[in-house]
Amino acid sequence: MSNFELMGDHEHYVLPAKSVKSDVRFDVYDYEQIPSTNSIAMLLAMKETKPNICITTRWQTDGRGRMGKHFYSPKGTGLYFTLIYRNDTNIYDALMITPAVACAVASVLEEESGKEMGIKWVNDIYCNGKKVCGILTESSIDFENVKLNHAIIGVGINLTKPKLGFVDEIEDIAGVVFDKPLSPTKKKKLLEKLLLSMDKYLKMLSTCEFMDEYRRRSILIGKEVIVQNGREKFEAKVLGIDNRAGLVVEASGDCKVLQSGEVSIKMPKATKKTKSTKA
Q: For residue 1, is pLDDT > 50?
């Protein structure tokens, strides 16, 4: 019995379709419901050495985001998938996986929806001021040979709005890519385009050719932000993004380059309205 059979009922298919000219093929294992595509992919990656495996599901009961946060993954309105990426990549280049994937996903969503997609450093995709996609990359490193064993690249996209809306804690920040639901056929085609785009951008890890696009799509450059980096919290202005995806900020007169942390745009303080008096 294979590792996939141990996981329960699923549909297996290969993308892209034979009619699509491509030098890469992805084995897709599609589940109705699992706790987390990343969690399942991590278990499989330890046992299965086959390249280009993709785990996808209709909904996640325990979807995960960065910093241990929960990723809301309701049934039928999103696209939730994880790619097990295997490549003889050095650790230095592997650090560029998340920005590469962010560009890959943003470009496809923009093309398919006709809406402009922006990137909030380092891993969120925004549309019309709302978050529509999150990316979580987890890796296994071979420190002896200083290279990547494999990367678990999770992508969660809000395709359309849930019937009951988003949960209260994300109602104000969550958005959607499409105005109308996508058919199963269109969802599969979208997944195909996303996987092919990810493959294309991941081939640029050593050259970082995508960084100009990453900067162009940034929604933070020039903005006043609040940075949470470990126990440290401070206000800063975003000056730019360097060629290794470091966020360049100015804080208290000093220039810093952030490689990790949480950044939120500082909202302007509301001005109090004064009552007018008639003479």
A: no
Three-class SS of 8-20: CCCEEEEECCCCC
Candidates 154, 138, 149, 155; CA nearest to 46 is 149
Class level of CATH domain 5-217:
alpha beta
Measured between alpha carbons, how far is residue 279 from residues 106, 273, 275, 276 in Å? 57, 19, 13, 10
Task: Supply the DSSP symbol for 278.
Answer: -
Whole-model pTM? 0.90
- Is the predicted pLDDT of residue 278 greater than 50, yes or no? no
SS3 109: helix
Residue partners of 257: CB distance under 8 A and separation at least 6: 242, 246, 247, 248, 249
Domain boundaries, the chain: 5-217, 224-265
CA distance 86 to 106: 22
Residue of 225, 117, 126, 131 lying closest to 171 (CA atoms):
131
For residue 241, give the amino acid letter: I
Q: Count Cβ atoms below 10 Å from residue 278 Cβ, excluding itself.
A: 3
| pLDDT tens per residue, range 149-171 | 999 999 999 999 988 778 778 77
Q: How many CB atoms lie within 10 A of CB 184?
A: 9
Question: CATH 3.40.50.410: does it fit domain 224-265?
Answer: no
